[in-house]
Design a protein that fits this description.
Strand content: 5-15%
Radius of gyration: 17 Å
Order of helices and strands: EHEHEEHHHHHHHE
Structural class: alpha/beta
Largest sheet: 5 strands, mixed
Strand order of the largest sheet: 4-3-1-2-5
Helix content: 40-55%
Number of strands: 5
Distance between the termini: 28 Å
Oligomer: single chain
Length: about 220
Amino acid sequence: MVAERAVLYAYWLSSCSWRVRAALYIKRIPYDEKSVDIVREQNHLTDQYRAINPSQKVPALVIDGAIIVESMAILQYLEDTRPDPALTPKTPLLRARMTEICETIVSGIQPLQNIGLRSHFESKEKFQSFTKYWTERGLRTIEDQLQTTAGKYCVKDQLTMADLCLVPQVYNGVNRHALDLNKYPILHKIYKTLLEEDVFKKTHPEIVKSEKLIRL
C-alpha cells in the first residue's frame, strides 16, 4: 500500500517553513506544499486554516494521518519516525550544542522579528530597528557558540537541525537588514557553504515562489 503524500502548509518566505521544507528534502519524504499567504491575503487568519493550526501560524504538516504544528516539533517528529539520514548528532553533548544553536534562533531571534509584531509598533522604522537589534545580537551569540562546535557545518561535519535553522534566519536577516556578515566570520563561512548544498538550493524561497503551489 502506497503511503499518502505529506502536505506542508507554508509561506514561501517564512524561515520556519524553510526549516521544515529542508528536512522533508533531506529525509526524502514526498510532499505537496499548500501556500498560506501570511502577508497580503493573511490566509492564516481564516477559520479554514485555524481548523488546521489553532495558533494560525505556519508551518503545519499533515503526515501519517496527523497534523503537526510548530517547526521544531515537526523536525523532531521527522527525526523520530524517519531517523535516516540523521539530523541530530550521536553524542549527548553535541546534541546539546545543536539545541543551543537552535534555541538561540527559534527563541532568541525569529519570534522577535516576526511580521506579526509589526502592528504593535508606531512605525515601520521602529519595527525594523527593533528586529535588526535582536537579529544582530542573536548572530553574535551564535558566532560565539560556533567557536566550539563548528566544522564544515554548525556542529562538526554533520548536517543537523542547527543548519536547518541557521540558513533561513541568516537569509532573512541579510534580505531585511542588509547585514554585514563579515562581523561573524565563522557563521559567514558556514552559511556560504550551506547555501551551496542541494538541500538549500532546491528548497530556497525564490524557487518555491516561482512554483505553482496549491493555495489555501
